[in-house]
Write a structure and sequence with these properties.
The complex is a heterodimer of chains A (390) and B (360). Chain A has helices at residues 2-11, 13-42, 48-83, 105-108, 113-148, 155-162, 166-198, 201-212, 219-230, 235-242, 257-280, 284-292, 297-325, 329-334, 342-351, 356-380, 385-389; strands at residues 44-45, 151-152. With 390 residues, chain A is mainly alpha-helical. Chain A has a two-stranded antiparallel ribbon with strand order 1-2. The radius of gyration of chain B is 24 Å and the shape is elongated. The mean pLDDT of chain B is 91. The chains are: A mainly alpha (390), B alpha+beta (360). The complex binds adenosine-5'-diphosphate and magnesium ion. Adenosine-5'-diphosphate (ADP) is lined by residues 13, 16, 18, 36, 38-44 of chain B.
Chain lengths: 390, 360
Amino acid sequence: MEAISSFRNRYGAILTTYVFVGCATWLIGMIVAPQLLMVQKSLMYSDPAAAAAVSQTKASTDRLFVEKGRAEREVRKVEADIQAGGAAEADQSGGGVFNPFGSSGNQNAGASVEELEARRDELIARLGQIDDEIAANDSALVDAEKAAQPRLGLQNYFELFSNDANRPIFFKTIWSSILVTLIALIVCYPVAFYLAVSASKETTALLMLGLIVPYWVNEILRTFSWLMLLSSNGLINQALIGIGLADTPIDWRSGNSAVLIGMVYAYILFMVFPIYNTVETLDKNQIEAARDLGAPRWMIHWTVVIPHAKPGIAVGCIMTFMLAAGSYAVPVMLGSTTSKWFTEIIYDQFYEGGNWGLGSAYAFVLLITCILFIMMMMRLFRVNLQDIAK
Amino acid sequence: MKNIELDNVTLRFGDFTAVRNANLEIKAGEFFSFLGPSGCGKTTILRMISGFNEPSEGAIRIGGQDMAGIGPNDRPTALIFQNLALFPLMTVWENIAYGLRVRGLSKTDQRRRADELLDMIALPGQGDKMVSELSGGQRQRVAIARALAVEPAVLLLDEPLSALDLKLRQHMRAELRAIQQRTGVTFIYITHDQGEALTMSDRVAVMSQGELEQVATPSEIYSNPKTAFVATFVGENNPVSGHIIDVKNGHAVMDTAMGHLRARNDRNLSVGDKAMLFIRPERCQVANGEGGKENVVSTKVERLDLEGSYINLFARGADGGRFVVHMTNNQDIAHLQHNADVQIGFSADEAVALPATQMA
Ligand SMILES: Nc1ncnc2c1ncn2[C@@H]1O[C@H](COP(=O)(O)OP(=O)(O)O)[C@@H](O)[C@H]1O
Ligand SMILES: [Mg+2]
């Protein structure tokens, strides 16, 4: 409260209201509420066997109702025939062409009144049976639905680790995202260093533009262009064959390589900029001082530039990792059925499996992993939030 | 011992010539200064000696060896940057030991050597502090220790005291001089502050617009300037312009707006040459009519400033030029009222006639 009033004294009531309402909306609407909702969903577990039993019972009831309707129609037909004193020779209008009881109007064709009466009694007996079965189903359904009711529990989380199809994809996604981060770091550090230290102002501006312009194109289109580049008769394969590095086209998409390449490309900017920004603030005399004291180039990077750029490197790694781990378009477009990404699994849970609880649990596990990764990076680079905020 | 030679060194940045035809030999163990106004090319010379810039023409030799193509990391020089460029993420001792770490010394050896150097720069036991915890003067000394740690033959200092306040600057002058004498390392020192250059150096090179104007000892620079630039940049000087009408016995007679004046002709000017005469304010006297000086000019008093132990007399000559006289504060000044006529005298031996080139 004191903070608010001092803020108000400094900036006036309108700005204060705006800032605090804005912050509250942001905090609650963007962070707390969705996460809580997701956590809540993820903790609701419904037994898949019970759910299967429910749908089975429902299906069986549906079938019984269909059968009942047909039987009732046939009973009416047979009674009409009895009234008429016997069935017509080739009556097509009987119980229909297709009869589940194996007794069609054709079968009754030309039947005597006695035969028709026997058939009617048989049908009426069956109708009674059907009613009993429906009643049994209804009571079973109540129990099954009770069993299938979502319950609070961690089963959704355990499910991921006992699911032999999804668990490897989860670990692969994490590992591949780390790989993407590493490759992006290796690719981007020299670029960022060059831009910040060696390049002239004009070159820097030009290269920056070159880095940014591709981002004006929609991510789907950008990824699609990589799909074309990496296709079996795409530019890259043609070039590789042309210069003799490959005999036959390389199938980039069957493994993870296309996805990795696409992601490194997609997120390069998020690695270059934070590193560039920190290296930019390095006093260039420090580089020269190290050199003057005899340090070879790698050592200047290791002892002077990288320590200074650590916050930027950490931010770049965190952003790239999060974007890679949470990427959907790139793996969908550049991956194949054998190289699924964990986000695709989550998507399937929500939109195809209809299992929101499981989907939420998967999503939450991914979120926690990302947070752990952030903390690990901050520990590894010995930077804290303040450094990163700089 | 390693002398440093600049042999016709020129450096151009595109069309702009930052250093032109510098010829110079700096002796091993010398405290040598480059003095000149900002932008005259001092840093550029230092960067060429340390290897960050290659001369466009000419050669730089250290200990007789041509330095062409040898990078800063392989030269026996150590540069102290204008802003020191200490490593802020390292402790004081890690800063000092950086050059040793680069050379692969063990951590204990690094630490031992750093501690020795800390003792030498009078900061014992401060090795574990961060650089940011030190004062300006202490950082200055750490930068020196870091450079000395690699035992360079030559220490290059780029205006190292310019960021310090006046008192500290004066203290550090003495300190630097002492360190130089203790280590025997050649110091090449850059400054735009003539006081620093004159008090600390064995020899001074005065620079202007990329050219070496004069290389000499401080007293030589002060009393026998070779160019109009040096005469006016180093210390104060009263200039009088004119042309030579007579030369003999190492003296020249100049025709000026203030009459005929005699001065030393160190540069062997000949009759008819345009020239400038320079006379230092403390070598002028207010002539009381009794004569005795070879040169007497008539001026009108403009202002008197009492400085304490001496008095500055500002007067205006017949040519409109200003004349300054430093008078010791033991003279009768009652007659020196505003606009009063005053005769100023000086001897020919203390004035010098120089070619009329650019003044500072
Ligand atoms: N890398 C460079 N490119 C172009 N001009 C430069 C460069 N470095 C210095 N100069 C110019 O050279 C001149 C001398 O600079 P410098 O040696 O730094 O002067 P100072 O005597 O003040 O140390 C200045 O006019 C400066 O603008
Ligand atoms: Mg400079």
